[in-house]
Structures are given as structure tokens and as C-alpha cells.
Batch of 3 targets.
Target 1
Amino acid sequence: RRSLPSAQSKTRRASSSRYSRHRVIVLHPQSKELRRVPIVTGLFATTLGLSATLLFWIQPLVAKSLLPLIGGSPAIWHTVIVFFQATLLIGYTYAHVLVKFQPLKRQILLHLGLILIAFWFLPFDRFVFSFSIDPMHPEWIPVQLWASLFTTIGLPCLLISSTSPLLQSWYRYC
């Protein structure tokens, strides 16, 4: 006949298990610690939200501004979407390389310097596209469109897309 284990042996087994090292702390909803949000966290969250909003707001804005010049065929819309997806991928790659191979101070200085350069050359009155359509060669329209988008808003979109991963990486130092 087996005897039932005592309460002490249960406690000892529980304390010797691999889960006993981790404590679960549940805070009361009225606790002050739950309401306290550091300013840095709020600033990072606001900046992340604004950069994502700006990135995905500028895509249809630029595409619609091209309609009077080129038209609204599906090929034009697809070319613009592929351009923005490529810019997003290059921006993420830039952020990854910057975080992996540069110290924090140089990351911040380089990124802010590039943002200032992009801001300086950004056309504020309207998007001025250097675009001339050759009706004899319509197959070159996507290439001309890519060149025009890259020279006009390529660098700002690349930097906006890299802001989110860079900020998330910098947040770990705060």
C-alpha cells in the first residue's frame, strides 16, 4: 500500500521543479505601477506610429499625383506599388546593416544626417516628376516611372521605412 505524500513533500517537489525559479507577479489594476508610462516609451511609440502612418499614407498620395501625367492603368499602379515595396525592403536592409555594423552614436548621427538631406531636397509645393512619355516606346514607361520616383521621393521613403526598425533597436538602450 502506498501512502499519500505529505504537504511538505509537495512543496519541496514544487520548489525543486524547473518552473519555481520564475515568479509570476500580478499587479492590481489600481496599482500606480500600471499607470506609470515613461516619457521615453511614449515618445518612441508616437514616433513609430507617425512613421508608419506617413509611410503608408504617402504611397497612394504619390500614385494619385501621377494619374494626370501617365494615366491610371493597372501597370502604372503595379509599378508604383513595386517601387514602394522595394523601397521598404531596402530601408529595412539599411536599418539592419546600420544596427549590425555601427555603434549607437554613429547610427543616430548618420540617420539624422540623411533625414536632414532628404528633407532639404524634398519638393514641398507638389511632387514634381521629371517625366516625358515617348508614345513610340511605351515599354519604357515603367523604367522612366521608377527613375522619376527614385529621384523625387526615393530617399525620404527609404528613410521613413527604416525609422521603425531603427527606433525599435534604439529602444533597448533606454
Target 2
Amino acid sequence: LCQTLLRGIPLSSLYAAHAQANNDRIQQLLALEKRPALTDLHAQRVADHCTQLLQAISRQQPILIFLDDLHWADRPSISLLNQIVGRLGKARVLIVGTYRPEELLPSPRAERHPLRKVIHEARRRFGDILVDLDILTSQERRAFIDKYLDEEPNKFPDPFKKAFFDRTQGEALF
């Protein structure tokens, strides 16, 4: 998406630029990644190294991390996210995550979704952090679709725009 929808530098470029200065930290992360199963101690080390690397890079340039469909993330990934969010402090890192709220609702046979803990902790630390996309009216969503499709010159006919809206209901992240 970088240079297409967003003006910015891909993380891989930042990684390459900072690889030399952070080589030890990166090598430690790679070594931890090769272990067959992460123990709690290894998970803590991974979180420490990830956080330190993000902090080091963010001193040179702000970082935007976009995580889509967090409701499908596994427990170790959500645990890592929770630890990083709790450790970043004032680093210039913005983490944007999307999820479907209905996927986090408890069911009779399932335990509480681990993402709920991350959201609760982030709200406690940073205040109101949620952007509810369901607050738009149908007319506002249709206006969004029309504006989005007409951003660039195109020949999309009105029936296509209507079908696109009907399929996505104007959901920006569909």
C-alpha cells in the first residue's frame, strides 16, 4: 500500500536502513524465531526485542503499523501485540488495527477473545481509541463509495457503483 494509497516508506526499507545499527537486536530476534516453541521467557524476549527495534526506528522516523482482521489473530500474536503496546511508551509508533466487533462477542462454548484484553488495556492507557465505522448512515456510506470511486478518473457506470455499494454496504475496510 505504501506509495499507492499512503505516502511513506515500506517497513522493509526502514529495516534495511536500520539493520546495521540494530544488527545485534535483529539477530537475536531471528534466533528466537527459529526455536520450535516459544516459552513465556522466549515470548518476553521477542516482545523486548520487537519493542526496542520499533523504538530505535521511531527515533529516526514515525512508524505506522496497520494490522487488519485482528479478530482472526492467534493468541501468541495478540499477546505480542499487547506486550508491545504496553512497552512502547512515547515512541512515535501508531498501531492501527481493524476487527469485527461481533467476532469478539463471547459465545456459550468459547472463552473471552484475547483481543478484548488488548483493547481494554489500550483504552485505559490512551483514552478513547476506537473509531466505530458503523455510525455512518446509509447515505453517508454511499457518498463515501461515490467519492472513493471518483477519486481518480474512471468510467464506472452508476449500476457498478450501486452494485459495489450493495456488496460492501460502504464499508471502507471490506
Target 3
Amino acid sequence: TFLFSGAFMNTISIYRVEPNTRPYTHVVKKTLMRSLRALRRNNVAVDVYLIGNRAMRFLNKKYRGKDKATNVLSFTEPKQFPHPELKRRFTQTERRLSQTKKGIRERDVTCLGEVYLAIPYIKEEAHIRNTPCSLLLTLYSIHGLLHLLGYKHGTKSDRIQMEKREKEMLNALR
């Protein structure tokens, strides 16, 4: 488990379920922290799970009815879901900030949800597409985050809007 907090009080928790995923934690953390900053989202928490194809296939089948692995899945946090761990996580930081900034409190932290990234799937896709794995990991991290923020791609209109936002985010991160 790795916790990353930025100057904007955002927290990205990365859980490396799949072995040998340590090299990817930095790309995911950097992408999500910079994306949240670009989107002007403050005091949010996102949990990211780096998993294998088998686990991804299980989740995809259970929650989407598709019996195959995929690159990324996102699950938004139910409204009013209690997060006692967030209170513990932010208590020390809030004490430090309370002397310099007003209005940041534990209750202001919004847990957006969970992003699952299938690292072996993404690595294979990168190989097939002759694209750097870090680029696809960046794209799918953004894609997952946008889902947590309410973007969808079920209709053509939604897909166009989401793809436009993804491109904007990629350009903003360069």
C-alpha cells in the first residue's frame, strides 16, 4: 500500500495486488495527482488497485457481465459511505495546515472511488500497439478517474465528450 498526498490535499492510495507492479506506481500516482490538480479537484481520495488479468476478468464478469479481462475498471464511491480511515489519514495533515489555511477538515475529504488497472493486459496491449506502456498506463489512469468523476461512454455523444476530455488531460500533463 502506498499513500500519496499532494499540496491540494488529494490522496491516491495504490494497492499492488499483482506482483512486479512497483515500477508502475509512480506513473499512476503522478498522472492522477496532476490530473486532479488540472481538474481543480481538491480534498479527494482515490484508491487504485494494480491487478492481474485473472482478477480483472473476475471483476469484469461480476460487475459488467463480460467474461474477459480488460484494461481498466472504475467503481464510484456510494454517497454517504463512511470512511473512518480517511479521518485517521488526514488528521495529522489537517493539524499542520490549520495553522496556515482555514477550512480544510476531514469531513471535506471526498472519496471518489476505486480504479482497477490490469497491468499484464496493459503491457500486452502496449506491445501489440507498439506504444510505450507508460503512455497507456497514463491514458487508462485518466480514463478511470474520469469515470469516477461521472464521465461515461455508453452513447456516441458521451464517448465523444469523454475522449475529448481525455485528450485535454493528456495534453495538460505533457
